[in-house]
Design brief:
Blueprint: E1 4-10, H1 16-30, E2 37-43, H2 55-62, H3 80-83, E3 86-89, H4 92-101, E4 110-112, H5 138-164
The protein binds 4-nitrophenyl phosphate (4NP).
Length: about 160
């Protein structure tokens, strides 16, 4: 049976990428794909290793039915480029950091999350990056959730043919 593994990547691994992981796990469970699509997250930075997600991210996610409390921050390593089929970055700075670490043969695995937002989601037309909500207010965390919900649905749709192939 085919499986696909994805790792969401941001800077701290306490706001955006754990949110993407929580949303993706929820959708994958709902679609009975938990044994086919493997999900993780990591940060390019090392400041929050071992920490639970930011309280504001946990709270905003919980209100939409996503539980992030058990997740813990970790830093991406070179071994992750072997382990995962896709490393899905939140912004261009994360992409640049991943490129620096990535063996050349694995560069195609690095993608931006918002590439997977379906064209029909005109709300995010033109947006390329999930903006860092860490130094902002509550609206930033809601926008991260909105974007993760739209992109993760598109991501699952994009992965389905690979699971069948
Ligand atoms: P994240 O947000 O990359 O979405 O987890 C951040 C969390 C912490 C910091 C920056 C961004 N920080 O500078 O500690």
């Amino acid at each position: 049976m085919k499986t696909v593994s994805v790792c969401f990547v941001c800077l701290g691994n306490i706001c955006r990428s754990p949110t993407a992981e929580g949303v993706m796990r929820h959708l994958v469970d709902e679609m009975k794909l938990a044994d086919r699509i493997l999900v993780d997250s990591a940060g390019t930075g090392d400041w929050h290793i071992g920490e639970a997600p930011d309280e504001r991210a946990q709270q905003a996610a919980r209100q939409r039915g996503y539980e992030l409390a058990t997740l813990r921050g970790r830093q991406i390593t070179v071994a992750d480029f072997e382990r995962f089929d896709l490393l899905i970055a939140m912004d261009e700075r994360n992409v640049a950091a991943l490129h620096q670490l990535c063996p050349p043969a694995q560069h195609d695995k690095i993608r931006l999350l918002l590439e997977f937002v379906p064209q029909t989601e005109s709300r995010w037309a033109g947006a390329c990056e999930v903006v860092d909500p860490y130094f902002g207010g509550a609206a930033g965390f809601e926008q991260v959730l909105d974007q993760c919900e739209a992109a993760c649905r598109g991501l699952i749709a994009a992965l389905r043919p690979q699971l069948l192939a």
